[in-house]
Amino acid sequence: MSAREPKYSSEEFKRRGEELYEKVVRPRVEEGNKGKVVAIDIETGEFELANDSFTARSSLLARLPDAQIWCVRIGYPAVTRWLGGRRIKKS
Quick one: pLDDT at residue 66? Predict the structure, then answer.
């Protein structure tokens, strides 16, 4: 299995992901789902909602193998956080 490569710059990835989340996804998922993760394909707007980023990404990739995925933890500024130079997974 080959590694998937991003098709966009990190700036464009972020712009598309944030725009889709705010305009399309957030109104549909925010209520009652604080803390869950939504994985969004920034090309199609398709998304999956799950309790953790691995599950959300895996579900989306099962449907869209070439998805360019942006993840958002509902109600929080980040999916993961950094502590003392180590990445702490919040999923």
Answer: 93
